[in-house]
Amino acid sequence: MNILVTGGAGYIGSHTVRELVRKKHHVTVLDNLSRGHGASVRGVNLVRGDTGDAKLLGELIAGEGIQAVLHFAASSQVGESVRCPSEYYHNNVVKGLTLLNALAGAGVMKLVFSSSAAVYGNSQEAPILEGHPTSPTNPYGATKLALEGALRWYGGAYGLRTISLRYFNAAGADPAGDMGEDHDPETHLIPLVLRVALGLAPHLNIFGADYPTPDGTCIRDYIHVNDLASAHVLALEALDAGTSSAVYNLGNGNGYSVLEVIRAAEAVTGRSIPVRYAVRRPGDPAVLVAGAAKIKRELGWQPRFTSLEAILETAWRWHSSFPRGFAGLG
């Protein structure tokens, strides 16, 4: 198929683009490169632009014969969303609606949406299933949920078929070692831990040690970025085969605390990782662990990287080889 990938030069988007290319799809990436890296999608048709540009969207959809969209373009930092909710509603909702309007106008009726487990808020169960109440604790999760709602109504009115993938903490890097996580600023735990292991930071800040968890630190479900990529491609192929709209969780079903991640990283890297404790960040739920049985049952998804150590090993390969990220690729 001819696929448009919005935000395709970002961390998860670029790994999904590689998987799409492996599956022989023709890919066009639309990315404003505010957070993404052109080097992550070398050899792919990259258009530098914004999902809020309705004219550009119309030209791309028509010019490239787009048949389906994978939508990753969004602001995605919890703490930042609490400080700057207007930016998050504009980028994630207003621009998302511009994309949906362009698709509806062009008759493109297949979209895979990169959603988030942040839509659930503070979980009442573990693992969380898709039927869990949605009550986001931050604007990031609220904006993801808002666009999910729009997808449902656009489906009823215009025939748009969508699959929303709610996932937890993306981590790791392509085992080839030539692409991985590179954010500025970096807020994700695993790359921050590995920066300390590399000597690029003196210590790791742990935000909160008084959560209602066994060791007082937040618990998260870490899922390898390549497993996320394969799930997006499966969702795309399901839509192409005529499946109805759906929502799926993605995760490994195992929760690890911040301290457990640090200990595992010390074992993988063979290096000590000093820590300092700081106050909680606003909007951080205590526990998020996914129940992904539905997508395994209905789409046949099976994660390959099921242990935290395996995920960390691929991340360490990338970060230790390219400590400056994509800037080190030349």
Describe the structure.
This protein has 330 residues and is of the alpha/beta class. It folds into two domains: 2-171 and 221-250, NAD(P)-binding Rossmann-like Domain (Rossmann fold); 189-220 and 253-329, UDP-galactose 4-epimerase, domain 1 (Alpha-Beta Complex), CATH 3.90.25.10. The chain has ten helices and 13 strands. The protein has helices at 11-22, 54-63, 78-83, 85-106, 139-158, 189-197, 225-240, 258-269, 293-299, 308-321, and strands spanning 2-6, 26-31, 45-48, 68-71, 110-114, 161-167, 169-171, 204-207, 219-224, 246-250, 255-257, 275-278, 287-288. It has a seven-stranded parallel beta sheet with strand order 3-2-1-4-5-6-10, sandwiched between helices. Helix 1 links the parallel strand 1 (2-6) and strand 2. Helix 4 (85-106) packs parallel to helix 5 (139-158), helix 6 (189-197) crosses helix 8 (258-269) and helix 8 packs across helix 10 (308-321). The longest helix is centred in the N-terminal third of the chain and has 22 residues, at 85-106. The protein is globular and about 55 Å long. The model has no long low-confidence stretch (mean pLDDT 95).
Task: Please give the structural blueprint.
Elements: E1 2-6, H1 11-22, E2 26-31, E3 45-48, H2 54-63, E4 68-71, H3 78-83, H4 85-106, E5 110-114, H5 139-158, E6 161-167, E7 169-171, H6 189-197, E8 204-207, E9 219-224, H7 225-240, E10 246-250, E11 255-257, H8 258-269, E12 275-278, E13 287-288, H9 293-299, H10 308-321
Parallel strand pairs: 1-2, 1-4, 2-3, 4-5, 5-6, 6-10, 7-9, 8-12, 9-13
Antiparallel strand pairs: 9-11
Helix pairs in contact: 1-7, 2-4, 4-5, 6-8, 6-10, 8-10
